[in-house]
Specification:
- The chain is of the alpha/beta class.
- Helix content is 31%, strand content 21%.
- A six-stranded mixed β-sheet has the order 5-6-7-10-12-11, with helices on one face. A five-stranded mixed β-sheet has the order 4-3-2-1-13. It has a two-stranded antiparallel ribbon with strand order 8-9.
Length: 232
């Protein structure tokens, strides 16, 4: 049994939104499927760190969910990305997954999932800004920070060591999202995985490594060459 992570699958089996038009994304679903079958075993857990489907509704995203469900792995844990427009309330999403027999898919939203002695925690996060955020961004950052705090507390309440997963990077180049970082610093988080950053130029500014006691890992699909990354 192993734990894996990858972000930004950007699947579009139910809508017309090809990613092959972007450099580095040629045949990305075939590459991802081949790597997934090569790496992931039936008993494994995989965290999908946002931007999973281009579907605008859960119905449009259903072919993508079914594709993920049919891949190896006992549990695939999805968190929200900025392009996951299908994301609605936890109750509606869980009912939809249950109705379609998508039993290997789980949703990370104001909760955590145990994995041995660890707790899988996380939320979407939000953009980093150079100066004080405008009221709209400040509201979203506060909400996302609260959701992350709830998730981390859920792990600690069960005596689990928290592992943090975000879609947006809490640090990028010289920019920081202090609303998110302050939550991470308040809890015993040692590692944080994130996606969202695409393209070689932007990848070059991403933070990979330790900052203020936390080790950050970029796991956007194109950065990791569409190969799920093993955590443990």
């Amino acid at each position: 049994m192993s734990l894996w992570v990858i972000g930004d699958l950007h699947l579009s089996f139910g809508v017309e939104k090809p990613m092959d038009i972007f450099a580095g994304w040629e045949h990305h679903t075939e590459r991802l499927e081949e790597a997934w079958h090569r790496c992931i075993q039936p008993e494994d857990t995989v965290v999908l760190a946002g931007d999973t489907s281009w579907g605008m509704t859960m119905e449009e995203a259903l072919p993508d969910f079914q594709w993920i469900h049919d891949l190896p792995g006992k549990q695939k844990i999805l968190l929200k990305g900025n392009h996951d427009y299908w994301w609605v309330t936890m109750k509606k999403m869980q009912a939809f997954l249950d109705a379609h027999g998508l039993s290997t898919l789980s949703l990370l939203h104001n909760n955590c999932y145990p994995y041995g002695e660890y707790g899988i925690c996380g939320t979407r996060g939000w953009v980093n800004v150079d100066t004080a955020p405008d009221p709209a961004d400040a509201k979203v950052i506060a909400r996302e920070a609260q959701r992350l705090d709830v998730s981390l507390k859920a792990a600690e309440a069960q005596g689990l060591k928290p592992l943090a997963f975000l879609h947006y990077p809490p640090i990028y180049a010289a920019n920081c999202n202090y609303g998110i970082l302050e939550v991470l610093w308040r809890h015993p988080v040692t590692d944080c995985w994130y996606g969202h950053i695409h393209g070689r130029h932007l990848h070059s500014h991403a933070i990979n490594g330790e900052r203020d006691g936390i080790c950050y890992h970029l796991i956007a699909s194109d950065y990791v060459q569409f190969i799920p990354q093993k955590i443990m």
